[in-house]
Each structure stands twice: as C-alpha cells, then as structure tokens.
Design brief:
This protein is an alpha/beta fold. It has 2 domains: 1-152 and 312-351, Isopropylmalate Dehydrogenase (3-Layer(aba) Sandwich); 154-307, Isopropylmalate Dehydrogenase. 38% of the residues lie in helices and 17% in strands. It contains 13 helices and 12 strands. The protein has helices at residues 18-27, 45-55, 99-114, 128-133, 142-150, 162-165, 189-195, 198-216, 241-255, 266-269, 272-275, 286-297, 332-348, and strands at residues 6-10, 38-43, 60-63, 77-82, 120-123, 156-161, 179-182, 222-226, 259-264, 280-283, 301-306, 312-315. Strands 3-4-2-1-5-12-11-6-7-10-8-9 form a 12-stranded mixed β-sheet, with helices on both faces. The protein is globular, with a radius of gyration of 20 Å. The structure holds nicotinamide-adenine-dinucleotide (NAD) and 4-hydroxy-L-threonine-5-monophosphate. Nicotinamide-adenine-dinucleotide binds at residues 17, 123, 125-129, 142, 303, 314-315, 317-320, 322-323, 329-330. 4-hydroxy-L-threonine-5-monophosphate is lined by residues 141-143, 286, 290, 303, 314, 316.
Length: 351
C-alpha cells in the first residue's frame, strides 16, 4: 500500500494572502477524487491561528517536532513546522524585519525534503522586493533561491493550467491544456537578449524534455519554442537572435532526439492550431509566456520548478497585499499546486 506523501507548504510573506490560503485549504474538505497527501504548513502558528480566527474558521494547529510524523489528514486540522515571526505582522503591511522569517520557512522546508521528512515542497507567495530591501542583494525569487540551495546550475520555471494536470482524462471540457516554460526568469527586459545564449537554451530544453517525461509522464515530449523578436526576427530584419542563436541550438538538440518546433512567432504560437499536439511551449522571457498562461488559467494553474533534485510547486499568483486578511483571495491555485506536488511525488519523489 502506498503511503500518502507529506508535502511541506511554506506560508510565504506573512503580510500577504499565503497564510490565509493555507488556512482555507486546511479547513475545506478535499474535492472528490483529490490526490491523497498530508500537508504540513511551515510558518508561525500564532499567525496562522490569528488568520483562521479572522476568517471565522475553526482550526486546530498541531506543532510537530523535527521528524515527527504528521497525523492523518482531517479538515480543520493543520500540522505545522513552527518558525516564529521576527516582528508582529498586519495583513497588507510589509515589514523588512520579517524577510528572514520568510527565508527561514523556505530553508526549513528544503531541509525537510532533503532529510526525507517531506516528499515535496509547495510554496505560497513571497514578496521579492521586501526581501531585497531587507538586504538580501541579488534575491530573485523562489526559483533561483532553490537552484542555489540545491546546488544545481540551471532550473526551469514552468507554469501549467490544471487541464495539464489531468492530461489523462479524455472527457475533460475545461480550459485548454497549456504548459509554458521560460528560457529566462526574473530579468529586466534589457538583459534578456544577452541571456538567451546557446548554452542556456541547451540546458533549459534538456531539462524541460527530461522533466516532462519524469514528472508529467509525457513519453515523447514535443516542445514549441518562441522566437525572441517580433515575427521571430522577420528573417533577420527585426533581430538576429533567431538566426544566430535559437535556430542553430534547436537544430543541434534535434540531433540529440528532442522534438522541437520553432523558433516560431510568439504572437501566433499560442493559437489552437499551433498548440495542437504540443506538450509545452518555451517562451524566451517572463512576460512573453506568462500573460498567456494566466489569461488561460489564472487561479487554476501552478508553477513548477524543473531541474531540481526535489519536487517544488507553487501558486500562479503573488502576495495580493490588496486582498490580505479579508478572506477574499481565491485558494484555487494553491489547491492545484498541492495536488500537482502530490502527483509528482508519487511519480518519483523522495519520501
Ligand atoms: N509564487 C510566488 O512567490 C509569487 C508569484 C507571483 C508574484 N509574486 C510576488 O508577489 C508580489 C506582488 O506581485 P503582483 O502584484 O505582481 O501580483 P499579485 O498576483 O500579487 O497580484 C496581482 C493581482 O492579482 C490579484 N490576485 C492575486 N492572487 C489572487 C488570488 N489568490 N485570488 C484573487 N486575486 C488574486 C491581486 O489582488 C492583484 O489584483 C511581488 O513581489 C511578486 O514578485 C510571488
Ligand atoms: N514568475 C512567477 C509568476 O509570475 O507567477 C513568480 O514570480 C514566482 O516566482 P518564484 O516561484 O520564483 O518565486
């Protein structure tokens, strides 16, 4: 009999919606047919109790000692790996004193995955600017932090709509399936062109191909690759990255056996005819790919970090400071992120 995987859920920026989304998830009955798993929140128990009270949701918080097994899942009960806040927190009000708290929750969860306490990591949103303003120069996001913490050279950010999570369901009638991976992640636009190198594209596409097989059960991935420039460079008249970098790299990788379309003009790639039969799209930069994905499935999509030695998923949204503490944020993406992490853990995680 398979044991239900334990997932560590970091509750993210304490002034954002993360803590209350964790409360919502813990107090709602799982959807029929939902994957079997046990969630352990990583954060300040008093903060979670406060948000549960504000939402009027009774919640029993069970503080776990290191390596203590969480109890069986039960709506209204939330096991916690406790990490204390550094300063009192009001919803919607950022405080640089809590930046180290956010990073400590992540470190605790990473340690838990490495030590076999958890089979995967799910992250609620953090606020990048407050971490930078607290003095963590160079901080870019969870994705890059996990890359460095795990000591790997490259990771790939991919967001997927929940249709993609049910690829095996032939009667699905929901949003179109879409998986969008990024060649570059949190970079100012003026640095993107220099970052699109043959070396980076090669690493990213190899990881994407391998992890679609490993985590998503895609036997022979077909990946559509965007150009960088309008009309994929218009034959070199609107930029030469397609001719000099992207196309030659794709040609080399095809010889390795990867199935790659492109480079294709990004404006028409995201249309049903071009997406038919495609398992993932590789966009060259953040706002080339993610607006399309979020238009198709905001609130029903998850963010996955590929290329790590551990399972990591996240929500498709940020800290939503404007909604924090009001109980109005949609927990849909967090539910998808948790279900996907459980699925990935079953396919090949650690614990
Ligand atoms: N996974 C993550 O950690 C993650 C993801 C995206 C953004 N961020 C960070 O979050 C911070 C704020 O970013 P932003 O303002 O660009 O994006 P945001 O997603 O926080 O907010 C954008 C809009 O979406 C709405 N929204 C967000 N989540 C929602 C939810 N669950 N239900 C209903 N509406 C929701 C907000 O109210 C807002 O109107 C930034 O620091 C950003 O870097 C973190
Ligand atoms: N780029 C992501 C998004 O727009 O949803 C987001 O900022 C998350 O990044 P990390 O998971 O790296 O924090």
């Amino acid at each position: 009999m398979s044991v239900s995987p334990v997932l560590a859920l970091t509750t993210g920026e304490p002034a954002g919606v993360g803590p209350e989304l964790a409360v919502m998830l813990a107090t709602e009955a799982p959807a029929a047919g939902a994957a079997d798993h046990r969630v352990v929140a990583v954060g300040d128990p008093d903060l979670l109790a406060e948000r549960a009270a504000a939402l009027g949701r009774p919640l029993e918080l069970v503080e776990l000692a290191p390596h203590e097994a969480p109890p069986a899942p039960c709506p209204g009960r939330l096991p916690v790996w406790p990490v204390p806040l550094r300063a009192p927190c009001r919803p919607g009000v950022l405080d640089t004193r809590n930046a180290d708290y956010v990073l400590e929750t992540l470190d605790r969860a990473i340690r838990g995955c490495r030590d076999g306490e958890a089979a995967g990591l799910v992250t609620a949103p953090l606020h990048k600017a407050v971490i930078l303003e607290a003095g963590h120069a160079g901080f870019r996001g969870h994705t890059e932090y996990l890359r460095d913490a795990c000591g790997v050279d490259e990771v790939v950010m991919m967001l997927a709509t929940d249709r993609a999570l049910h690829a095996e369901a032939p009667d699905w009638r929901g949003d179109p399936a879409l998986r969008v991976a990024l060649a570059t992640t949190h970079l100012p636009l003026r640095e993107v062109s220099d970052a699109v190198t043959p070396e980076r594209l090669t690493r990213v596409l190899r990881i994407l191909d391998a992890d679609l097989r490993r985590w998503f059960g895609v036997a022979a991935p077909r990946i559509a690759v965007c150009g960088l420039n309008p009309h994929a460079g218009e034959g070199g008249h609107l930029g030469r990255e397609e001719l000099e970098v992207i196309a030659p790299t794709l040609a080399r990788l095809r010889q390795e056996g990867l199935t790659l379309d492109g480079p294709l003009p990004a404006d028409t790639l995201f249309t049903p005819r071009h997406l038919a039969g495609v398992d993932a799209v590789l966009a060259m930069y953040h706002d080339q790919g993610l607006p399309v994905l979020k238009y198709a499935g905001f609130g029903r999509a998850a963010n996955i970090t590929l290329g790590l030695p551990l399972v990591r998923t996240s929500v498709d949204h940020g800290t939503a400071l404007d909604l924090a503490g009001r109980g109005e944020a949609d927990p849909g993406s967090l539910a998808v992120a948790v279900a996907l992490a459980a699925d990935m853990a079953r396919r090949g995680g650690h614990a």
